[in-house]
Structures are given as structure tokens and as C-alpha cells.
Amino acid sequence: MPYTINAHKPTVLIVFGGNGDLTKRKIIPALFNLYLENRLPEKFAIIGTSRTKFTDEKYRTDLLAGINKFSRTGKAKKEDWAKFSVNISYQAADIKDVASYDEFESTISKLKNEWKEDPSVLYYCAVSPDLFCTIAENISKSKLENNHETTRIIIEKPFGRDLESAKALNKKLLTIFDEKQIYRIDHYLGKEVVQNVMAFRFANTIMEPLWNRTHIEHVQISVTEQIGVEDRGSYFDNAGILRDMIQNHLLQLLCIIAMEPPVNFDADLVRDKKVEVLKAMRKIVPGMIDKVAVRGQYGAGWVEGKEVLGYREEAEVNEDSNIETFAALKFYVDNWRWQGVPFYLRTGKRLFKSASHIIIQFREVPHNMFNNVERNLPKQNRLIISIQPDMSIKFQLESKTPGLEMNLNTVDMVFDYDGKTKIDSPEAYETLLLDVISGDQTLYMRADQVEAAWEVVMPVLDYWENNKMNDFPNYPANSWGPENAEALIAKDGFHWINLPDKNKKE
Ligand code: BG6
User: Name one GO biological process term (predicted).
Assistant: First the structure.
């Protein structure tokens, strides 16, 4: 049910890559849901653009199919769609040709006259990264709006393919826009449970005294995916999972766990604290890479009764590709809070199941007084933050099993986003789009943040690029990845924690 009448400025959103998968799967369903919740400005217009020619009508029909397939709120009601879709139009354009931008300019002018007010103008680059600079340059060369207060540019990932290219891209963008106009997306930051970590850590007094090396033994961050590279072979075979997932999503999760409390929610204060974490991460030097980083590539196998291809057999992938589809790494954050606490990060494609979670494992009790009972070792407490598909924050504590003996049992204290709460939780793109409309950069990546994240992964990236693996593929589809990944964490006396399906104990 609508509960907020939105007071934002009139807004024009131009979506470059308007006919792409991301637009249909994520951007338009997110905007539609914001519309249903009365969160969009009263006056807004969405202009999709790509090279292919369409009528507005055909374009809208395609977008509606996307909503019906992908929106968390299910199929659109006819009357809602009719009211929303009048705000959408389509303009075929060659985005490399500066002349095509004149047409956008005349549409914006028309809207300005109609609305009798200057709108915010948002440029969304949902295109291949090699076009980011071209779009920015053409915006600057054309008569298109670039008011430093009301114009914003949204840049999808990947932001660069290494430190140098990320720096060059930042430099170019910053000659045209101010930092406060640039919105670099990392959609993990918009996920509901990820945002809740800030509330959980900083709105509860009981967390802070526990949140450090004295009480925490180690941290695991896992983002495992059952899917393979699907139809993104040509992109992925140039990237690999270190670039695709670790440099951005997993390192950002690590920052949220490790950051110091910011003074308030000011976007720069929050981002300063995250940058501090990245700067404190122990530099991985070439000689130690094999001890702290493991890579893998999936082979063929069976997933849910269907035979699936190995990575090298996927479309548009090199048949002797050395690209990794799995990575596990161990990091340290060298500061007072985290000295000596390992952070293990793991992600991969074609793994046993899709699940994203963070596990904070607390230390053992200093003295075991329960040694005369059936299960004589109290298990270590864990905080389990499940991001998806289950959404929950769970404390695992030890408790007495009801009965005549003093037997121990692990019990869960759970905050579960079950049922309605889960359905009502906005998708990451809803949060992120609303933030860009209202000009809030807190959940977006700042230039120095992206560069600091690249700095962390560069030594591994360089080493992996220059040292081929002879045993690829080294894990079958539908497994938990290569054996070495187990060895990486087992050396320290731990094991990867794979969560059971909901409601079952590990
Ligand atoms: C994207 C990666 O950024 O994140 C994909 O490019 C990956 O390879 C995706 O599949 C995972 O996102 P989510 O939200 O489905 O966990």
C-alpha cells in the first residue's frame, strides 16, 4: 500500500543500455515497485535508449514482460502499469555519436516546459564498461544538462579492470562531473540484510564490546552461486571471479563487518570508515599468494538432474581458458580491533548451492566446566548473517537440553525476514535508485573506495594472470569448489561453514 507521497524534484532518467538485460530484469522492475509505493517523484520520465529501433509501444511491452517475469511483487496490474508506463519513452541512438544526444536534449527541454520546473537529470550507464567514458564525454560535448547540483551519472560495475584503468576512469569522469554527481554501483550494498548489519552493529550496545579480536576468532564471507557463466562468457572470460565478485561485493561486505562506527550516516563519513578498512588490509606480497589465495575453475557435472557444461565448453569462453570461476582468500585487517583475526572470503560459480552469508565465529569459552556430560565441549558461539536466499540474522548459543542431566545443546536466536517481511523488503536496486533520485551517496562507491579495493586484489590478480594453472578445471559442477579451498582454511584449524537449508541444523 502506498504510504509516502514523494516530494522529490521532477526527474528525468535516461537509461543507456535501455534494451539490455539489466534494464529489463532489475532497473525497470525496481522503478515500477518504487512507483507502486509512491516513492517516485510526481513528475518523472524514463527514456530508454539503445541502437535498435523500437516504437515506444513495443519498448513498453518488452519492459512489462520483464516486470511480469522478474519483479518481486509479481505480475503488474493493468491499471498500475498503464499509469506508470505513460512516463516511459524510447529513443534509438548511437551513443558513440555526439549528434544523437541532441534528441535527448530536446526531450528534456520539452519536459521542462511542460513541468514548468527544472528537473534532476540522471544518466544511467547500464552498458558495457568500454562505453562509460564515451557517454560521459558526449554528455559534456553536447548541450545535455550537466548542472552540478541536479545532474547525476550512475555507473554500473565493473569499474575498471584493474587499478590503473579504474584510476583512469575516475580521472576522466572527474573532469566532467563532481564526485558528488557520480554514483558507482555495488548492488550488494543495497541488499536489505547488508544494510541491516549497520543497524545491528551500531544500534545495539551489546554488540560493540564483543566486536573485536578479544571475542571474535575468525570471520567467513561466502557468496556461492549454483549458476555458471550463463550467456556472459565473453565478459567473464576477460574478468574472472576475483574481479567480478571479490574486488567489489565481497570486499564491501568485509568493510561493513570491519569498519569503525561512523559519527552519523553522512555519506562521506560512512565511506571514510570503509576506506580505512581497505587501507588497513595487510598487503599480500607475491611470495605468500599460494598460502592465502586459492583459485578454481569448474568442470562439467550434473545440477538438479541436468548435465551441465564445464567452463571451458561454455559459449564465448576460450577452450584453454586460465580464468578462475572460484576464489577463496584469507585476509587480515591490521588495526587494533582486528589484529590477528583472519577473514576468509569465498565465492564461485557452479557450486553446490546459491547462498550468501557472513559468519562471525566467537572464541571458545576460556574454561570448560562441562566435561562430565554427554557432549562435553560447548560449541563456539556464532553469529550468522544470511543475506540470500534465506534472509536472517541468527545467534547460535549453547543451552541446557531440558532433562535431568546437564547436557548441552546449540540453540538459535533468530531474527528472520520470513513471509511478509521478506516480500515487503525492497530489492537492492529499489533502494539504490531511490537513493540516487534523492541524492544520497551513502550506499554508492566513492572514487578512493574503488581504488583502494583494487589495490587490495592487484597482487593476486597479477600473479594469477602471469602464472597459469595446469590442473584447470579443478572442481566439478555441483561441488563446494577445489580441495585446496578446504586446505586454505583447515591449515588454521577451521572449516568452511555451509549453511543447511532453512530449518535444518548443520
Ligand atoms: C554480479 C556479477 O555483480 O553479481 C555476477 O557480475 C553475479 O557474476 C551477481 O552472478 C550476483 O549477484 P546476486 O545479487 O545475484 O547475488
Answer: pentose-phosphate shunt, oxidative branch
